[in-house]
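Two quick folds needed for the group meeting slides. Do the first one here.
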Amino acid sequence: MAQTTRFEPGYLRIHKNGGLRDRVRAIAEILEHCELCPRRCGVNRTLGERGYCRSGDMPAISSYNAHMGEEPPLVGHGGSGTIFFTNCTLACVFCQNYPISQQGVGKPYTIKELATMFLSLQKRGCENINFVTPTHFIPQILTALEIAVSEGFTLPLVYNTSGYERVEILKLLDGVVDIYLPDIKYADDEIAFKYSGVSDYVKNNRAALKEMFRQVGLLKCNNRGVAQRGLIIRHLVLPGGASGSEQCLLWLAKEISPHLHIALMSQYFPAFKAPGISAIAQRITRAEYRPIARLHRELGFEGWIQSI
């Protein structure tokens, strides 16, 4: 079971000590030679140059709302205050949110408007602010956070990511992010390249997961069972064993902790380009999912197993 604890978001302590402004300055400079993700495009986004993620210097957002469909400790009673950022550092051929991640659905907002979203979701009673696909907009998020904190923002921050991250950038978030919610998508880089367009996913993903765990540890909840700090990992089981589910779970148990909260997802369906790729053009079967669910239990993980 998750531990119960009283909690103050780490960014509030950093802000009180004057350190949040330093974090904002340090990471904002990266936009001039963008290396936020492992692709390290090197473009100057402040001058309108665009790299792989096609993003500029203003945060692009498709929607924000109270979301009741996340993992239970994130939802609580008020919902998870999700902000869906436009574009992505990956190019998953089966992405269920492809209009947002691949086709650029959304619009640019000012930093002040982003900060207002934080405060609005807090006022509506959300349990946290959940940044969905935030990697390419980290500088803008931190700048908005500084504004929101000065106006009374106090909710935990959730970093909801594909798991394709640079450890050097994650270290700048140490003490700022309260809950990491990354994917572990693949155990094989050839498959990662085939389906997500990136040839170094496994190395970067595994290093990122270790860094996230170092920062926040196992999941901790308040006395209402609502997440306040910690790591939750998602794994989507793909057809035909493409996701390397067994290898992923074994690695997590051995290299991080067998007590992790892991959401083992069976909800794959062939979206976006997947219907035209025979190996992943169908849903997963019970015969594919059940052995992975059994391994999840045998290894001792906390978390969630879906029905199929």
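Then this one, please, same format:
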Amino acid sequence: MIRLFCLLVAFIAAPGQLVFAQVSQSAASVATRPAKPRHLTIANKAWTGDFDKMLERRMIRVYAPFSRSLYFNDNGRERGIAVELVRDWERYLNIKYAKQLAKRPLTIYIVPATRDKLLPDLEEGLADVAIGNLTVTEERLKEADFVPGDEGRRTINEVVVTGPKSPELKSLDDLSGKRLHVRKASSYYDSL
């Protein structure tokens, strides 16, 4: 505001000479002032809301476990079954809710996560969806909703996998006293 006033006063006082000098000073100060660097904020903040709120926000965060089949990085490109499913879902949602979204489409971000972080981060609001061959258990149903719902659930049979040099197993009693290797985040950990 002060600079504009100075320009007007200079223009009224001496039309050609002072205005040119004032503009030169202004241009020089802009040239020497460094521009603020642009950056993309990627901080993930806790947020919870239902699907309608995700549509309003136009963003869904999907956590997927890093693995050779579900999610992996191939020369800077996301690949895997989870990636293909999520990208198809993103296209479907943008078509189905095109009127509601108007000209700002919904974006789904896939975040690689370790299996032990999938459900806890979902519960803490750091993820909106967790994907990755998650077995539905009674304990997990207390933390999150699963697709398909309870009515579509089926019984899961657990299978013991051994190596070629392992002794033959005829019953679960044969595992008594043996060392078993299971991820703590796996549903098998609880059942063992």
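Slide caption for protein two: The chain has eight helices and five strands.
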